Amino acid sequence: MSETPISGRSTPAARLYDAPMLLLTLTTLFWAGNAVASRLAVGEMPPMLLVLVRWVLVSGVLLPLFWGEIRAHWHLVRPRLPMLAAMSALGFTGFNALFYLAAYTTTAVNIGILQGSIPIFVLVMAFLVQGSRITRVQALGVALTLLGVVMVATKGSPHRILGIDLNWGDLLMVVACALYAFYTIGISRRPAMPGRAFFAILCPIAAIAAVPLAAAEAVFDPDWEWPSAEGWLVTLYVAIFPSCLAQLFFLRGVDLIGPGRAGVFVNLVPVFAALLGVLILGEPFATYHAIALALVLGGIWLAQRMGRRA
Fold it and tell me: What is the value of pTM for the model shown?
């Protein structure tokens, strides 16, 4: 689905808006930053409150900004509100809530591996819902990117995956990945309207869906504390980059190359998370990081090449 350019001139922003690989790479970089931010938020910002505040902040910015476009397309939006509500509640609120909850009962190794399964869910759901074919080259591209994810998650020892035992956190991450894949597939069935206005509609729905979660957390969590200044700063970062810019970029990327090919880029998240860990958390950069990055980029190249031929 095409969209009116943000500018009639060939500005850097306009060129970025028509560059799907760059848009989706930045998307995964921002999402990787969200993983680092979530660790910084531990003990500083309650997780469900973080989910709520991030969408409230984004809604407060985008709704006034794109209100005119929303009103112009409301006749297309209203019949699909139930579907949009499900997409936002599951893909935005549900995914993030389960992600933060999973971190309490599983390891980062497990989360990295399981989060890399999102493209698998996307391709399978695209086949079941839309009848999209999964070619051998696309399957090979996904396999290579997943191998890169495993290299990162197991610190260069893929055989360690055989020793991982599933627990409740792992199961929550599997469900979270399925929820986000549902959202990704749903994007292709959105109303015929600009992606930025479409996203602006989803944000308040996500905020509303997060209210009961945050309320339950405040009432039933005996360790609940009011956020610190650092917690608010982390939340501000999360609202601007992973929640706002990344989602807008992802929507535009799906518009340009489709959900199946766009979903492959999700495998970059654990790779970027490892790189950010070096820069922000002081973690060492090992040889397996470079090997994983090459595998992921090679897999994306294969999926892109096959998608262009199709």
Answer: 0.77
